[in-house]
């Protein structure tokens, strides 16, 4: 059964480009949109595009300090590093038009949030978004402006009182957590690789929110090597109970696909099939707990040909209500295009041929298993804040 979906898109979204040697290459978004078009996702009944405008300073200032915004604008004009704002670092090189490119991504996420909030569509997507690390006064982790936080802050300005944000990127969603750490209107849940082994070094279970919002920051820090089944065990042990308790007015999700085993920058071992199942679970939870109101964004993902286009095409198709069967062949025309653009041999199918199963955490806790210890640490830290028993 189809779902109404608005896709925030403008070709200018690929202008967010740190240069040919940087891992966050915009070709990954270009290849995703091309693959989704070949599969007819955008021709599905109920799917349409939403116009995109750059976020103005008023919108950006919902999260970022005015002097930082001015520094980003200046750096994109002069191409000079600006150390106090972490502009010009290896992670965040300056590039021409940096402010305009980053502001367009933020504007796209606000446009997506607006389409859902106004009831124009059940779901809305900005795959170029999900830049969840950017801080109020400096760039961080490939992120200049924090579009998920800006979109959520805009929803609060419109009157939203309960927003849930679920982040399944391999890296901790630190910038979004920071912005709402003391705000009980926003529940932030991040499942990520342990900060002991991965950037940004935050996201421990004891980060639970400020004095006015204890239990509204939720962190599941998973050990390196976590696979599909263990990931799904952790997801189901934490995310559904909290969303069911909160009953958010709108669900915002960030879908970095750098949890994949092939990703060069991280150490989890999910497959495309596990990621696809995660998208389906979030879709189901949006319908169950948020009245179907779902805003979805991209995020990290640095295996540019083998992983990102397939993962996010599955995500778009899921949001459109027309999932693509996992064993479907990738279109030959897309494979030719991807090879021409990158010189790589593209994948033949929309699957990694993995069967994803998991055991329920509630059916038995193994204190010798590091994933179970991570799950239990999170549940003990936050479940009591919501009146939930961490042992049930």
From TrEMBL:
Decide whether keyword Transcription is in the record.
no
Q: Which UniProt keywords apply?
A: Acetoin catabolism
Q: Does the keyword Ion transport apply?
A: no
- Superkingdom classification of source: Bacteria
Per UniProt, residues of the Histone deacetylase domain are 22-317
The family database entries (Pfam families) matched by this protein are listed as: Hist_deacetyl
What pathway does this protein act in?
Answer: Ketone degradation; acetoin degradation
Query: To which protein family does this belong?
Result: Belongs to the histone deacetylase family.
This protein's name? Acetoin utilization protein AcuC
Tell me what organism the protein belongs to: Salinactinospora qingdaonensis
């Amino acid at each position: 059964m189809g779902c109404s979906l608005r896709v925030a898109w403008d070709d200018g979204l690929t202008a967010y480009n740190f240069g040919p040697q940087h891992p966050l290459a915009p070709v990954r978004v270009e290849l995703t949109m091309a693959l989704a078009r070949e599969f007819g996702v955008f021709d599905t009944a109920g799917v349409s595009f939403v116009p995109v405008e750059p976020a103005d300073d008023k919108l950006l200032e919902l999260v970022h300090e005015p002097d930082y915004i001015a520094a980003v604008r200046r750096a994109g004009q002069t191409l000079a590093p600006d150390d106090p704002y972490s502009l010009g670092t290896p992670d965040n090189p300056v590039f021409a038009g940096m402010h305009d490119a980053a502001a367009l991504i933020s504007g796209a996420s606000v446009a997506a949030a607006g389409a859902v909030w106004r009831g124009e569509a059940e779901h809305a997507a900005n795959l170029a978004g999900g830049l969840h690390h950017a801080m109020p006064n400096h760039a961080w982790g490939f992120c200049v402006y924090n579009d998920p936080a800006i979109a959520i802050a805009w929803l609060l300005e419109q009157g939203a009182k309960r927003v849930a944000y679920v982040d399944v990127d391999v890296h901790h969603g630190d910038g979004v957590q920071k912005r709402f750490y003391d705000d009980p209107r926003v529940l932030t849940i991040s499942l990520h690789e342990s900060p002991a082994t991965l950037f940004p070094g935050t996201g421990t279970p004891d980060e639970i929110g400020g004095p006015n919002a204890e239990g509204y920051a939720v962190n599941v820090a998973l050990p390196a090597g976590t696979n599909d089944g263990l990931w799904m065990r952790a997801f189901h042990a934490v995310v559904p109970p909290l969303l069911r308790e909160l009953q958010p007015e709108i669900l915002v999700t960030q879908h970095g696909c750098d949890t994949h085993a092939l990703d060069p920058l991280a150490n989890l071992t999910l497959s495309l099939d596990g990621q696809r199942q995660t998208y389906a679970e979030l879709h189901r939870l949006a319908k169950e707990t948020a009245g179907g109101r779902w805003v979805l964004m991209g995020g990290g993902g640095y295996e540019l040909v083998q992983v990102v286009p397939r993962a996010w095409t599955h995500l778009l198709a899921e949001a459109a209500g027309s999932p693509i069967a996992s064993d479907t062949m990738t279109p030959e025309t897309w494979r030719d295009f991807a090879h021409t653009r990158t010189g790589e041999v593209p994948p033949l199918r929309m699957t990694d041929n993995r069967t994803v199963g998991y055991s329920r955490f509630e059916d038995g806790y193994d204190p010798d298993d590091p994933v179970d210890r991570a799950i239990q640490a999170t549940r003990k830290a936050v479940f009591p804040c919501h009146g939930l028993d961490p042992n049930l």
